[in-house]
């Protein structure tokens, strides 16, 4: 075996071994205060906001990682949000109001980004109802993938924003599927 062949063999072996190496470890975010845990590619920042709604002021507890700054991620943004509603108005146990709650949440998200609803399906976590939607964002430039769960009077919303040509990537699935509820009262 000549020197060039040995170098090529070693390089190919190294590349092959690296392909089995596990991708970078994600940051495990856990909030006992808000009752959930989820994995982000890197540590998220907290950005709580109070919004005025038809039912009064609501505090949105948002945790966000802007992946667009590193340029190596398939997604631009990862977001987890927790909002608590007045129990008398919004509750997963009141099955009559669930369709309206989810419809208003989805339509509001689509309207807020001036987007177009691409898909919607019913999902659940544990025994709690949810929806998964995909929204066209910026007229075909990006896609928002969103999961919304209603746990009693608590809404959990997960969201990624992805350039359209990178839609359906593994990081979206990893982020969404890593979401777990902590023990509910």
Topology record:
Blueprint lengths: L2 H18 L6 E5 L4 E5 L4 E2 L2 E5 L2 E11 L10 E8 L13 H15 L3 E10 L2 E10 L4 E10 L2 E10 L6 H8 L2 E2 L4
Antiparallel strand pairs: 1-2, 2-11, 3-5, 4-5, 5-6, 6-10, 7-8, 8-9, 9-10
Account of the 3D structure:
The protein is an alpha+beta fold. The chain has a single domain, classed as Mog1/PsbP, alpha/beta/alpha sandwich (Protein Transport Mog1p, Chain A, 3-Layer(aba) Sandwich), CATH 3.40.1000. Helix content is 22%, strand content 42%. The protein has helices at 3-20, 98-112, 170-177; strands spanning 27-31, 36-40, 45-46, 49-53, 56-66, 77-84, 116-125, 128-137, 142-151, 154-163, 180-181. Strands 3, 4, 5, 6, 7, 8, 9 and 10 form an eight-stranded antiparallel sheet that branches. Strands 1-2-11 form a three-stranded antiparallel sheet. Strand 7 and strand 8 form a beta hairpin. The longest helix is centred in the N-terminal third of the chain and has 18 residues, at 3-20. The chain is globular and about 45 Å long. The termini are far apart.
**Quaternary structure:** single chain
Supply the helix-strand structural class. Answer: alpha+beta
CATH homologous superfamily descriptor:
Mog1/PsbP, alpha/beta/alpha sandwich
Estimate the helix proportion, in percent: 10-25%
Low-confidence residue ranges: 4-22
Per DSSP, the total helix count is: 3
């Amino acid at each position: 075996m000549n020197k060039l062949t040995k170098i090529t063999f070693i390089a190919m072996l190294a590349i092959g071994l690296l392909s089995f190496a596990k991708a970078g470890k994600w940051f495990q975010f856990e909030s006992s205060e808000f009752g959930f845990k989820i994995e982000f590619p890197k540590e998220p920042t907290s950005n709580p906001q109070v919004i005025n709604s038809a039912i009064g002021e609501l505090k949105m507890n948002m945790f966000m990682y802007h992946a667009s700054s590193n340029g190596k991620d398939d997604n631009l943004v990862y977001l987890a949000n927790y909002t608590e509603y007045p129990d008398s108005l919004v509750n997963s146990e009141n099955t009559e109001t669930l369709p309206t709650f989810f419809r208003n949440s989805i339509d509001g998200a689509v309207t807020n980004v001036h987007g177009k609803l691409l898909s919607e399906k019913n999902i659940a976590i544990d025994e709690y109802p949810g929806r998964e939607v995909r929204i066209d964002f910026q007229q075909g430039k990006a896609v928002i993938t969103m999961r919304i769960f209603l746990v009693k009077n608590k809404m959990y919303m997960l969201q990624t924003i992805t350039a359209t040509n990178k839609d359906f990537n593994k990081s979206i699935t990893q982020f969404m599927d890593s979401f777990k509820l902590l023990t509910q009262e």
